[in-house]
Amino acid sequence: MEWNKMGVNRSKTDQYQLRLPPGLREEIREAAELHARSMNAEIVERLEKYPLLVRLPMDISFLKNENERLAGELDATTEMLRDAQERAATFHRLNDQLAEKMEAIALQIQQRDEEISKLKSQLAATEGARDELRAGNFALQELIKKQQHDAPPIASDAPLTSELFDKLFSHLVRLEQKIDGKQET
């Protein structure tokens, strides 16, 4: 049994006689010396690496295609991100505008509530004055009835007495003062 430098049994290895094109033998010899191995070991090394070298262009092509696909996805994702940022900016701008409008509406509501409160106060004062006018009217009618009952009938074109006129006038002045809020106590 004969062993070679690589520790392989030579009697069990396949042998093949090979013809090389001009210059290739010298290239293999230089590569073998560079790698510190025999020419046979250099040829075996190259033959073993051949399937990887054949697949390499396919792998490169696949990687280029994958790179293009990923670049496309990145571009699409970047565009979606820009769109989302624009929408977020629009949302924040609209939200700020809405907040400003809501503040303005709240201020208007507050002003109207104050106006309504004033109007309610005026209405209460007006209702009080109306009630007093009704009471005054009732008192005036009672006075007229009493005077008609106590006095002889007066002709319809006869003037009012100064006493009745004074009472009516002073009552009207008091009512007017109450309406204006200037009633004296």
Q: Approximately what portion of the residues adopt beta-strand conformation?
A: under 5%
Structural class: mainly alpha
Number of domains: 1
Largest sheet: none
Radius of gyration equals 59 Å
- Count of DSSP H/I helices: 3
Mean pLDDT: 83
First-last Cα distance: 144 Å
The 3D shape can be described as rod-shaped
Unreliable stretches (pLDDT < 50, length at least 5) are none
Give the number of DSSP strands. 0
What string, H for helix and E for strand, traces the elements in order?
HHH
Helix content range of the residues, please? over 70%
Write structural notes for this entry.
The chain is mostly helical and 185 residues long. It has one domain (19-180). It has helices spanning 24-34, 39-150, 162-180. The radius of gyration is 59 Å and the shape is rod-shaped.
Which helices and strands occur, and which strands form pairs?
Blueprint: H1 24-34, H2 39-150, H3 162-180
Helix pairs in contact: 1-2, 2-3
